[in-house]
Amino acid sequence: MDNTTRHVLECLEEDARISHEKIATLTGLTIDKVDKIVKELEESGIIRKYKTVIDWDLAGDENVYAIIELKVSLERSIGYLPLVERLYRFPEVRSVRLLSGQYDLSLTVSGKTMKEVAFFVAEKISTLEQVQHTTTHFVLKTYKEDGVILHEQDHVSRLPVTP
């Protein structure tokens, strides 16, 4: 990938709503060239989707998120893909990642309540033949999502301690 294409991608990653005119200004390209690059990136699958980062807590959403780590057993000739394809088809699953280290896979899941997420793990994930062990971590607060800071801390200055 050349630097021009990388720069166009970085502009879109920073702000999916950025106009092609603004990208052209930032990169020194013509609008037609930006249009062509973006179209090629979309058609090739490099650009998969345009996404909005939403602060669901601020919006009043009551969803619960959890990170589920999976230890799995695999047959040599099959690999991870069949299990991964089964996992990412569950509507509760927001992301699936292959890991190095103690666990093999990481899932990010969502549900309306902790109980709903716990039942999903117990009934849908733990029952899969390849899954040997799961560890569930409930997300208590999200401070940064996809590079966007969601929690701006108020700058409260401490009063000086006097003797």
Structural summary, described in words:
- The protein is built from 6 helices and 6 strands.
- Helix 2 (20-27) crosses helix 3.
- 36% of the residues lie in helices and 21% in strands.
- A hairpin with a 6-residue loop joins strand 2 and strand 3 (105-111).
- It has a 4-stranded antiparallel beta sheet.
- The protein has helices at residues 3-14, 20-27, 31-44, 56-59, 81-88, 114-125; strands at residues 64-72, 93-98, 105-111, 131-138, 144-145, 148-149.
List the helices and strands and how they pair.
Elements (H helix, E strand, L loop, with lengths): L2 H12 L5 H8 L3 H14 L11 H4 L4 E9 L8 H8 L4 E6 L6 E7 L2 H12 L5 E8 L5 E2 L2 E2 L14
Helix pairs in contact: 2-3
Q: Key terms for this structure?
A:
6 strands; single chain; 4-stranded antiparallel sheet; 163 residues; extended; two-stranded antiparallel ribbon; alpha+beta
